[in-house]
What we know:
Layout: H1 2-21, E1 41-43, H2 45-51, E2 55-60, H3 72-83, E3 92-98, H4 102-113, E4 118-123, H5 129-141, E5 144-148, H6 151-166, E6 173-176, H7 183-201, E7 210-215, H8 219-231, E8 236-241, H9 250-264, E9 278-280, H10 293-306, H11 315-328, E10 335-340
Parallel strand pairs: 2-10, 3-4, 3-6, 4-5, 7-8, 7-10, 8-9
Antiparallel strand pairs: 1-2
Amino acid sequence: MxxxxxxxxxxxxxxxxxxxxxxxxxxxxxFLPLGNFPTAVQRLSNLEHALGFKSLWIKRDDxxxxxxxxxxxxxxxxxxxxxxxxxxxxxxxxxxxxxGSNHVRATAVYGKASGxxxxxxxxxxxxxxxxxxxxxxxCEHAAQVYEVKRMETMFxxxxxxxxxxxxxxxxxxxxxxxxxxxxxxxxxxxxxxxxLKSQIEAGILPEPRxxxxxVGTCGTMAGLIGGVQLAGLKTxxxxxxxxxxxxxxxxxxxxxxxxIYHRIGxxxxxxxxxxxxxxxxxxxxxxxxxxxxxxTDAVEMMAEHENITLENTYTGKALAGLIHYxxxxxxxxxxxxxxxxxGGA
Length: 345
């Protein structure tokens, strides 16, 4: 009975903490609830022991949604609301990405479930088991799938389609950028840090010295950086680059953080410069979606020790980068948080 009372008190404490940490923009920017939040935080005790770390944790955004998890759900909640203002007919959603894109998969699945028609423009990526599964899911749920061979061609076609819509040619569409990475979508990760802070204050985990996250189109990392600053945490966000430098770079991230601040009307926040961005390049390998040995080993290690699924394009490389970064800079005795961004259906 006493144990039950203790758990109930802990739950109430957590709820009070979450309420007090909600960002001020929460009530002013519409969002469409899609996910199961808050996502859990758990200690990776077995992996921690195997690596010789003192305090290793994971944020389970792989469990963020009923139709498949991942980091895209938090972003889509805001963009779906913007695509369907009250009283208006639902627009067609148009988005882009590689053939194995987690973002395009989530947009197609959750978009269809929310009553949207979803059009996708894809470029071919090196095939893996997980990317082929994503591609099949995209084709099953999207109303229309267009394919090109190169990323550059995809971006040119995306710009052309936006111009057509702006000129009133064809049906009205709401455009969601690659990765869902926009100031509006990234607000989902500003809010996510408020969720994390509540979990810290409830004693679920210590305040992390570092948060590690894979970086592709930069929106998740930018949202986390903005959220950490606004929440007053001392945590440093470190991105593990998994996309080409032309897409994932400190300038793009710092610009996105500034645009997020402008979008939510944040004032009295320190300006962020490229030198403030912690971006690890050492585990990118030979190219986007091309597996590395270290990344593959990290996927197997997480599965063996914690029974948690990673993949080779994003999260496997991110965990490998975390291990290399922490060992190289001798932070094994500090609290480390791995933000898990993958979540297949």
